[in-house]
Design a protein that fits this description.
Blueprint: E1 6-11, E2 17-22, E3 44-52, E4 58-64
Antiparallel strand pairs: 1-2, 1-3, 3-4
Length: 66
């Protein structure tokens, strides 16, 4: 992972922030389908914003299916 200092924000389809992840690393600090309180999120589309300390801000959608 090339960008160790980052923040990932996950929003539901209504734009409510459900999860914030600092220093996402694709190994052990990842979006696991839970909210900030550890509760399982429902199936559906979620919007993400990935803010990198050095680099562009990336945005997109992810579909969560359990």
């Amino acid at each position: 992972w090339q960008f160790p200092e980052n923040e990932v924000f996950i929003m539901d389809r209504w734009g409510a922030l459900v999860r914030t992840i600092r220093n996402y690393n694709n190994r052990d600090n990842v979006f696991d389908g839970t909210d900030n309180q550890g509760r399982s999120l429902g199936n559906g589309d979620y919007y993400y914003i990935l803010k990198l300390k050095s680099g562009p801000t990336l945005k997109g959608w992810v579909y969560l299916h359990r």
